[in-house]
Amino acid sequence: MEKRTKFSLWYYFIVLSGILLLQWLFFSGSGVKEISYKTFRDKLAADEIERVVITRDRIYGTFKQTAADSAAATQQAQMDSSKHRALPILPGTPWRIRLADYEKKLARQFYVTRLEDRNLLPDLQKHGVDYRGKIESNWFGNFILNWILPFGLLVMLWGFLFRRMGGGPNVLNVGKNKAKIYEVDPKNRVTFRDVAGIDEAKEEV
To answer: Structurally, how many domains does the chain consist of?
Structure first.
């Protein structure tokens, strides 16, 4: 007899955790730091903001490079160029350099929750900040959260309940009559003639 695999509820928890992990990795801006609106206005007044992107709910921006950052970047570039002249280029070295540059750029990025501020655009123009608007359309993330994830949870719950009840492919046939008609072998068929040897039995029948 073939052994059936027993499914536990932990399998569904693992799948759900994997879906939530993918959602957190690909659809969340966890790498960009959030600042308060007051800090944003203070940085704007101090000419420390380079560019911003304004959406319906948030404002994404990039701080300007400070003099210390520029000096450090120049020094690092000189050190990298001297190392490249002295040492052979190793596989993966350009990737590590690009990753370090990306981390530095990410440290300069920020976002802030947008508030009603009529003086924002004039102040951005006053301080020479490059700004633009953007309509966010996260249709793929919304499709997964609103359709795929609930439907997947329902399917997993349905399958779990069926396995708990021990149902097979005919679980849905609840009201179906399970009676069967069996064909009797004509040679072994018993008739009234075989049992009608007594007169009393004939009269009773």
So the answer is: 1
pLDDT tens, position by position, 115-132? 999 999 999 999 999 999
Pairwise pLDDT comparison (23 vs 93), residue with the higher score: 23
- Domain assignment of residue 22, given as a range: 9-164
Look at residue 115 and give its three-state secondary structure. coil
Residue 62 token pair? 């990039």
For residues 110 and 119, give the distance between their C-alpha atoms in angstroms, rounded to a whole number.
20
- Calpha distance 152→143 (Å, rounded): 12
CA 66 from centroid of its chain's CA atoms:
37
> Does residue 204 fall inside a structural domain?
no
Distances (CA, A) of 76 to 68, 69, 90, 168, 177: 12, 10, 18, 67, 82
User: Burial of 181 by CB count in 10 Å (0-12 exposed, 13-18 middle, 19+ buried)?
Assistant: exposed
